[in-house]
Amino acid sequence: MRTHTDYISITTAERCEIRDITAEVDRIVAVAKVDDGLALVSAMHITASIFINDHESGLWSDIMTWLEELAPAKADYHHHRTGEDNADAHLKRMLLGHQVTLPITKGKLDLGPWERVHYGEFDGQRPKRVIVKVFGGP
Amino acid sequence: MRTHTDYISITTAERCEIRDITAEVDRIVAVAKVDDGLALVSAMHITASIFINDHESGLWSDIMTWLEELAPAKADYHHHRTGEDNADAHLKRMLLGHQVTLPITKGKLDLGPWERVHYGEFDGQRPKRVIVKVFGGP
Amino acid sequence: MRTHTDYISITTAERCEIRDITAEVDRIVAVAKVDDGLALVSAMHITASIFINDHESGLWSDIMTWLEELAPAKADYHHHRTGEDNADAHLKRMLLGHQVTLPITKGKLDLGPWERVHYGEFDGQRPKRVIVKVFGGP
């Protein structure tokens, strides 16, 4: 059994942003030299998401509008009594999820035709980390 | 360490449908001959879900009504500028999640008394695939 | 490859409650003596969640208020025709998710600075189980 761990560092230009990170994950899986296994991709910060969906900018815009409707930025969250202003980011990240486990078959990510791995940022403009842990048989 | 990979193909009769796939996953786990490990069950299409909940048709109906309230089908999604009409399906699938990782203990799925694995389809009536990757010690 | 499985039993004082279970998971990981691997933490009951977020009581209160808005307790769910009264709990648990997979590096949970593992109960006051399955190389 082989394991390989790496970290992706992301600093977004905007406070809220969606980014396709499939190519970065592919590169880490290639280095791992695992023929059959799994790759865990997990946001290490609690205001960011990892999710799988379509790489289509219209859909990304729809996702952001929809998250704002379901988990709006507003002043009166209890969390803000601590001095924070990002309670909505904590909620938005949970709607999309914070991690995915990707199957690896014959040395490559075994994804469906439109599956792409995305990073969703809801309180960005500062460095955040994503862990990628690859696990399997050589 | 042993791995075993199989794919379940599903074509639903309805555009939106919930189906219990626990028996199919059980069969794949039996073939894998893994005594202690994990089974990843993951939808390979971006308008379908895999989730664990109760096998109860009233609840399935409640889930569908609820998803329609939180992520309604409507014309004015940006995603529809590409010619698609299924942006709501992309959103609904994220509310339920697209994958589960099931523990295997003593050769069998180690689930609670009412835990059943479900496939949720939100843009069906065409073949979709679910990957099942089993992983563990013999 | 090494595996180790344990179960956490939780009986909450309130019907709905959030509890930080990171210390319990840490103890199980320490017993597993896995240097590099994964820990699956999964609720075995279908009205409870496992999720990662901030250990901050104001945020916990915000999460409960928000879940009540998105998946309200009410009488007219179809699920209640079976004699149950907890359809909202089945829905709430899906918004937060029911499991997480935690990376283990150098024998310890490899979490970001504010990541804490939480149990979310939505129909409690009776014993519920959480499985923790640790998996990896010694």
Task: Describe what you observe in this structure.
The structure is a homotrimer. By secondary structure, the first copy, chain A, is of the alpha+beta class. Helices cover about 25% and strands about 40% of the residues of chain A. Chain A contains three helices and eight strands. In chain A, a hairpin with a 2-residue loop joins strand 5 (about 100-105) and strand 6. The longest helix of chain A is centred in the middle third of the chain and has 14 residues, at about 55-70. The N and C termini of chain A lie close together (about 5 Å). The relative contact order of chain A is 0.40. The model of chain A has no long low-confidence stretch (mean pLDDT about 95). Chains in contact: A-B, A-C, B-C.
Structural class per helix/strand content of chain A? alpha+beta
How much helix, percentage-wise, in residues of chain A?
25-40%
* Spatial extent as radius of gyration of chain A: 16 Å
Q: State the shape of chain A.
A: elongated
Largest sheet of chain A: 5 strands, antiparallel
Order of helices and strands of chain A: EEHEEHHEEEE
Overall pLDDT confidence of chain A: 97
Q: What would you call the quaternary organization? A: homotrimer
Strand arrangement, major sheet of chain A: 1-8-3-5-6
Terminal CA distance of chain A reads 7 Å
The DSSP helix count of chain A reads 3
Low-confidence stretches of chain A: none
